[in-house]
Design a protein that fits this description.
- With 446 residues, this protein is α+β, with helices and mostly antiparallel strands.
- The chain has 2 domains: 6-190 and 351-444, Aminopeptidase (3-Layer(aba) Sandwich); 194-348, Alpha-Beta Plaits (2-Layer Sandwich), CATH 3.30.70.360.
- It is built from 15 helices and 19 strands.
- The protein has helices at 6-21, 32-44, 113-129, 153-159, 161-164, 217-230, 239-249, 256-261, 266-275, 279-289, 325-333, 358-370, 387-391, 412-415, 425-444; strands spanning 50-52, 60-65, 74-79, 99-100, 103-105, 137-142, 168-171, 178-180, 183-192, 194-203, 207-208, 292-300, 306-307, 310-319, 341-348, 351-352, 375-381, 396-399, 422-424.
- It has a 6-stranded mixed beta sheet. Strands 8, 9, 16 and 17 form a 4-stranded mixed beta sheet that branches.
- β1 and β2 form a beta hairpin.
- The structure holds zinc ion.
- Zinc ion (ZN) binds at residues 79, 111-112, 145, 172.
Length: 446
């Protein structure tokens, strides 16, 4: 294993703790103090960061390490906002950045202030070393990812594309350790599902609550939503998932290896997903195989004694690569009643690139070098990230924010948006070394 540079790792721990203490819960976000903190770190190394944004309290921070321009830029992308917490459910306060049991605790520890700190430090190191880079390395820390990217990556791409235009991006989410039945895996995202947010609406005859009738719009919508919540939509084969299952199944023993390779068979998937002890992995498996439509909001009536004339539900729909909003609506139509109106509120198409690139090869080899025996595997992100915005500028994104997790039962998937979010201190130090290794090799490259 390559030598660790103690300063890089120590700096990462110190700055991440400080950044966690800056509360950027979205809503309302208020990312500017976090952007300013990172700008200060970047400035200390002689970089010239820019703060830009639509609102004074929602600034994004961008900095560029200049290369010779022989090759197009590489973007290191993070979001600075975090999702809300229920502090009473946490073992240690979520915004204190405390270290306990080898972990640095706090909201944003892995989603994804750690990547913001790691990539800022990598940019600082490259600047300080003054080595010849063939391509610019751009650091960006954006606002507002958790609420749909409007004031962050989307705003930057619409208003300042010149600041963030790049050939490749490294960002959310991937390159964390997954311990699976003796095997050690590092999923690296090469694609992410689309998001189609919808409203289902049913109309009926309003009436008095004292006069029951079987045709009641609240009951009908309730039944439709219940059917949708329990239905697994049809499977679709995708290149990225097929490749992922191939790689992962090869690391597993019988019978799991055979079952995994055949996960597209509906009967096998149904029984595996039903009996998986870990509901998080069960959900992620479901999300890889089909489009999904998850009811999240219900709205009908306002008075106990009035049967309303309309009832609505909001649905968080997600689409696989090669699937459109229209494909998903057609699948939902088969589950809900015909007279149900479906209105699309937001349509963010899936993005997909391939593992076929020099950068992916460098990422893969870095993982193999820094964690001997581990298996990197290109995978499909079930959720959306800022990669959707960068892709509008032709950028190819990989989910790569390396963290090494010990085999102690702590799982990245449980911590992501979960209570007790935390990052292993040694795993963070390891991660910043891996990221530095990757960025330097790629930016200096042949
Ligand atoms: Zn995130």
């Amino acid at each position: 294993m390559p030598e660790l540079d103690p300063t890089l790792g120590e700096d990462a721990v110190r700055h991440l703790a400080a950044l966690i203490r800056i509360d950027t819960t979205n809503p309302p976000g208020n990312e500017t103090p976090a952007a300013e903190y990172l700008a200060e770190v970047l400035r200390a190394s002689g970089l010239e960061p820019t703060l830009v944004g639509a609102e004074p309290s929602r600034q994004n921070v961008v900095a560029r390490v200049k290369g010779t321009g022989e090759a197009p830029p590489l973007l290191l992308a993070s979001h600075l906002d975090v999702v809300p917490v229920e502090p009473e459910r946490w073992r240690h306060p979520p915004f204190s950045g405390e270290i306990h049991d080898g972990y640095l605790w706090g909201r944003g520890a892995i989603d994804m202030k750690h990547m913001a700190v790691m990539s800022a430090l990598v940019a600082c190191r490259l600047k300080a070393e003054g080595i010849r880079l063939r391509r610019d390395v751009i650091f960006v820390g954006v606002a507002d990812e958790e609420a749909g990217c409007d004031l962050g990556s989307k705003w930057l791409v619409d208003h300042h594309p010149e600041l963030v235009r790049a050939e490749f991006a490294l960002g959310e989410a991937g390159a964390f350790t997954v311990h699976l039945d003796g095997a050690v895996l590092y999923p690296i995202a090469v694609a992410e599902r689309g998001a189609v947010w919808m409203k289902l609406r049913m109309r009926g005859t309003p009436g008095h609550g004292s006069l029951p009738r079987s045709e009641n719009v609240v009951g009908r919508l309730g039944r439709a939503v219940d059917r949708l919540a329990r239905t697994r939509l049809p499977h679709h084969r995708t290149r990225v998932v097929e490749r992922y299952l191939e790689i992962v199944s090869a690391t597993q023993r019988f019978p799991r290896n055979v079952l995994m390779r055949n996960l597209y068979v509906r009967r096998i998937a149904d029984s595996i997903i039903r009996t998986m002890p870990d509901r998080g992995i069960a959900g992620a498996t479901w999300a890889m195989l089909s489009n999904t439509a998850v009811p999240t909001v219900l709205r009908a009536g306002s008075k106990t004694n009035v049967i309303p004339g309309v009832a609505e539900a909001e649905i968080d729909g997600r689409t696989l690569p090669d699937q459109t909003a229209a494909d998903l609506v057609a699948e939902i139509r088969k589950v809900v009643e015909d007279e149900c109106e479906i209105e699309i509120l937001r349509d963010m198409p899936p993005v997909e690139t391939t593992a076929d690139s020099e950068l992916f090869r460098i990422c893969r080899e870095a993982i193999e070098r820094h964690h001997p025996g581990a298996v990197p595997a290109p995978y499909l992100m079930p959720g959306f990230t800022d990669a959707k915005s960068w892709s509008r500028l032709g950028c190819r994104s990989y989910g790569f924010m390396p963290v090494r997790f010990p085999n102690d039962g702590t799982r990245f998937g449980d911590l992501f948006h979960g209570h007790d979010e935390r990052i292993p201190v040694d795993g963070l130090k390891w991660g910043v070394e891996v990221l530095y290794d990757v960025v330097k090799r790629f930016a200096c490259g042949p």
